Amino acid sequence: MAQQLFDNGTLYQGDALSILRELPGDVVDLVLTDPPYSSGGLNLSARQVNPAAKYQNTGTRRVYPPMLGDLKDQRSFVMWASLWLGECWRLARAGASCLVFSDWRQLPALTDAIQAAGWAWKGIIVWHKPNARPSLGSFRHDAEFVIHGVKDRMQTHSHQCLPGVFTYAMDPRQKVHLTAKPVRLVKDLLAVSPEGATVLDPFLGGGTTAMACLETGRRFIGVELSTEYAALAAARIRAAEEALKN
Ligand SMILES: C[S@@+](CC[C@H](N)C(=O)[O-])C[C@H]1O[C@@H](n2cnc3c(N)ncnc32)[C@H](O)[C@@H]1O
In the record, which residues are listed under signal peptide (predicted)? Predict the structure, then answer.
């Protein structure tokens, strides 16, 4: 498997399920990931259009590399998610949390899959997106969700009560991925892991989780199938490492 080492982690380029199966168990303090949603339409043909058309605001001109693995129907999405979430459970230490991004359409599927994989479902966190596109005559879809699961009894690392709702606009200037998440949001979510934690993200995309780990003194294990996104993530992490040294 293609692998790159960084000061604070490792990036594997390849298929998440195959790579997770090769890694040893009980090594991860937190799973934090944003899988391809296979969403964005009311029927199968609408969901199988180009992800750039499904997930980008109308009129956005920027072109991103294609996002892979976004074409599953509902049954195969649940089965596949149960498989990789089960591997994440094996890699996690007892007491670890699992945080998985989802949109409203895939929320029921992913809350089923996370439990089928062995995690105890602990709750839902809301990411409020104030710059979401409008839905004229209907309700604005201005939230995505983070499903929280735990392995065995949750291990807490502070006495602080964390918020259940986070409001962050995605700054287009910081986007290197079609469906990038804000680094500030991911940094906030890392608060459920101990300082120095090892964080697993099997769908690293443009490297947001790795950046958040770097900025908070944590280590990451990242996997990304697309060679283009793996290269973009690697360049972004190397640049941040250099900036920290200077
Ligand atoms: C929603 S994006 C993650 C974006 C990321 N959170 C960011 O902020 O840049 C999901 C990523 O998973 C990758 N992917 C799809 N199928 C995969 C697989 N089987 N194994 C590993 N990565 C995969 C896609 O190429 C895509 O980059």
Answer: none
